[in-house]
Every structure is written in C-alpha cells, then in structure tokens.
Amino acid sequence: MAGGNAFITEAFALLGVALGMILLRTIGRATSVGIRNFQLDDYMMLVTAVVYSLETAAAYIVGAWWHGLANNGMTPEERANLDPSSQEYALRVGGSKTQVIGWSLYTFLLWNLKLCMCVFYGRLTDGLVHMKIRIRIGYGIIGATYIATLLSILLGCRPLRKNWQINPDPGNICQPAISKIDCLVTVVLNVVTDMYLISIPLPLLWKAQLSKRRKSLFLIVFSGGFFVMACGILRCALILLDPVNGAQKAGSWAVRETFVAVVIDNIPMIYPLFRRIIKKIDGTLASHYAGTHKISNGYSSSGSYAMNSRKEKKPKFVHPLSMRNATMSDSAESIVRADRVKNGQDILIVKESTVDVGPTKHSNEEIQEHPHAQHLGVGYAATCNHAGGRGDVTRISRRGSAQWESPHNGS
C-alpha cells in the first residue's frame, strides 16, 4: 500500500510540474508572438496537457480502483473457478479495460510530443532546403509509426472485447497489461522516431559558432530524448520479465517517460521567457543603483570624493543586427538563422533591439517569430531602435553584409 501511495504522489507531482511548464510556455509564446500568431505546436501542447492529465488519471485508477488487477496472472483453474458475479471478476475486467485506455493515451501523448518537436524543428530550419526535406521525412515517420502502434493496440486482439476476457484464457496477445505485441511494437517504433528526431538539430548545433558551454547546454536539452528512450526500453523489459507484477512497475516508468518528454519539448520555449525576465530585473536593479549612486562633479551622493571619477572608455558599438551578435545569440532560433546566413541565404537576424514592422512594435525575440520576419527584403523595411542610436535595416545580403534602407522606401 505504501508503494502505491508513493507512486500516486510521484505521478501527480510530476503532472503538476509538467502542467506548470506548459503554462509557462504558453505565457512565453503569448507575450513573444501573440496568441494570433500561435503555431501548430503551441495548440498541440495544450492538447498534451489534457492527454497527460488523462494518462495520469488512468494510471491512478488502475491502482486505486482496480487494485492493479487485470485479466493476466491467472492459472486456468483460477479462471474457471472465478465467479463472473464476484468483485474480483469486476476488478479484473475494469482493470483490463483501463489498461487498453492507458496504452492508447500513452502512445498518443508520446507521438503528439514528437510531432510538436518536429514542428518546432521545422520553424527553426525554415529556409534551409536540405533540412526541410529531413523535416518532411520526420512528419512521415511520425505519422506512419503512430498508425502502426495504434493498430497494434486496437487490432492486435480481435474482437476488441477479448482484451478483458477472463475465461477461457484469451492468450498473451489479448492481455493488455502484459501484451508482448503492444510492448515490442511501441518500444521499437518509439526508439526509431526518437533517434531520428534527435539527429535533426545535432548537426546545426555542432556547426553553430557558440562557446563550448552554451553548445553543451543545447546538446543536453536536445539529447534528453535518450532518457525517454531508456525509460521506454525499461518499461518494456519490466513487462516481459515479470508478467505478474511488471505491469505496475512499468506504469511508474511510463509516467516518468512522458514527464521527461514534456519537459524536453517545453524548455526551448520557456528559456527565452526567463531570459527576458532576468534582463528586466537586471535593468530595474541597474536603474535603481544608478539613481541612488549618482556622481556629480566628482563627488558621490554621500558627499565623498569619487575615486574612480575618470571617464570610462566607451566600448566599441556593435550593431544588434551584426553577424557577431547573430552568431553569439543564446536563442536556439538565432543559431539556425546564423547558419542560414553562413549558407548564403537572405534572413533577418535581430538581437537586443526593437523592430517596428508596420504599425506594431515588436521586441527582438518577437520579430524572429513574426509572420513577416522572413519576408523583409528590399522594398520592405524594418526600423531598429537600439541604445546607441537608430538605424533601418531590411535584410542581410547573400554575402553576409547588412543592407540599410530608409523605412519609407518601398510599400
């Protein structure tokens, strides 16, 4: 009983953290690009929140309502002697039905997260022809493997009601808690799709002009799928090696697997939000410090002479749209944009600036998601405001040099 309580506590704690991350992601995207400019993966992540809640509820019901019982782990004599009107019979039937529902929710959740990640990669690599082909292949792999997995769950045992049949023994294929076909098909296709998705961003990150520390952080985030794969393999091994109690242990790892998958999908979207918050806090603290430590005529606010009253050397100004800032950006999307410029493609790179597109003002992190961002070129100008002055930029040329125009040029 203690083990069951520990699992329930863990499952709902992980659910709470995951829902919190999805909420932060949604807030970050809403403040960055606006709700009207949400992409497919933003809406799909909201669906993920609902499905993840249902999956956790199903895992809870298996233990709390049905006491972990299903139509497996019984001898032929026990099946023949079990009264259909008994409580145990009802518990085993209910547990078997919930196992089918749990498998369906589990696979839908994982493949929905895979699709979210593939859509995100597609947005990151927009404009890179060779990457566009890989993204399309990813969509095809995700769709085909999900259909195959779902069919194995729903059609592997026919008719469907045999999944909760008690007597006679329906066989392993019709025992959803320990079905080998459900387990093997799911884990193999899950690993195949995860391996392919992991292979998409790694070449770009490897070539990106980032410090080793930053590059390592990105690699850790995007390679978190290895842990998800390990959880899936362990889950399948527990079911195959322990047909009696393995299903309950596997349920714990299924919850952990889906939790880590949710975290991996949302970290790239939450990071810019925290970065904006930290910059805002730093700016507020800096303003407060400057206001309380004003230096006038060589004397501090307390009346004592300022020892370091010599004028500091003004750092060389680097425009926020320069190639240097583009390649050193912490943003994952800016990494890919820098890679596009290196490959000779037109792209607008914005960092630490404010850009006016039409009548609406957008921050640097908003413009990279703005629907018009990819169409800024000669004849369509954007106005850049920065601390060092005001400049107008339309694009970065194929040779990598910035081309400047008045915001009134073109329509």
Automatic annotation (TrEMBL):
Q: Which organism is it from?
A: Endocarpon pusillum
The Rhodopsin domain extends over 36-276
Q: How does it sit in the membrane?
A: Multi-pass membrane protein
Pfam families per the UniProt record, alphabetical = Fung_rhodopsin
Keyword Transmembrane helix assigned to the entry: answer is yes
Spans traversing the lipid bilayer: 6-24, 45-66, 100-121, 133-155, 184-205, 217-241
Name the UniProt key words of this record, in alphabetical order. Answer: Membrane, Transmembrane, Transmembrane helix
Q: Where in the cell is it found?
A: Membrane
UniProt superkingdom = Eukaryota
- Write down the PANTHER family for this protein, in alphabetical order: PTH11-LIKE INTEGRAL MEMBRANE PROTEIN (AFU_ORTHOLOGUE AFUA_5G11245), SRPK
**Keyword Lipoprotein attributed:** no
Taxonomically, what lineage is the organism?
Answer: Eukaryota, Fungi, Dikarya, Ascomycota, Pezizomycotina
Q: What is this protein called?
A: Rhodopsin domain-containing protein
Gene Ontology, cellular component aspect: membrane
Per the record, the similarity remark reads:
Belongs to the SAT4 family.
